[in-house]
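not sure who needs this but someone in the group chat was asking about ThuA domain-containing protein from Magnetospirillum aberrantis SpK so here u go. i didnt clean anything up, its just raw.
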Amino acid sequence: MRSILAVDGGTYFHHFAYSDPQVARHIRRRVHVRKLAEVTLADFDVVVLPCRLDPDLMAPLREPLLAYLGHGGTVVSLSAEGAEEFLPGVVWSPSEVNFWWWLDQTNDPGIRISRPHHPLFRFIGAADVVWHHHGVLVPPPGAVPLVEVEGKGALVYVDRVSTPGRLVVSTLDPVFHHGSNFMPAATRMLYGMMRWLAEGDLGDTLAPTVAPLDAVTRSRPEPAEPPARCCA
């Protein structure tokens, strides 16, 4: 079982989410973001950065995080907004957030799993990644998008090209919604992702470590069943 360091921003939703036994059982240690600089990151296999961390507090931690990735560590950022200040290769574009799209049963937000054979999806399903999202990502050349909004960009990707380590970036915010007791899909995603990080195959055989010579050539998402409604 991998050792996971969970960074805590001190909010109620971080506290609630990390205190949930289904999440806490996978966490070796919790640390407040203001104390992260005092931690030896190399002691952990995975560092989880939840949504809604203060970028001003994270920016000074860029060098320790890069050093950790440089030695093969795994960083999971569940918030892309501001992440370009402290993580490599992150290109994030904001988009309008439609919190209530699910009230219209004919509305399809276009969220699709683009690599259904990736080991992450042994732990979470198509309906578990469908709720509103906070912008889209342009993965670095060679990074592997796992969840995308059709025709717009990625919501989750794995990058093994920018550093010798493994960087997972998402614009979905499961910690916030689970910690706020709102959005069942987010709870399922958080539970599944924590299990995957702790004990699953991280999918390295599906993620190249060298960018393609022709730069960005992303494959089209594979056909998928229409997603179940997020709040059912």
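also The first strand starts at residue 4 and ends at 8. if thats useful
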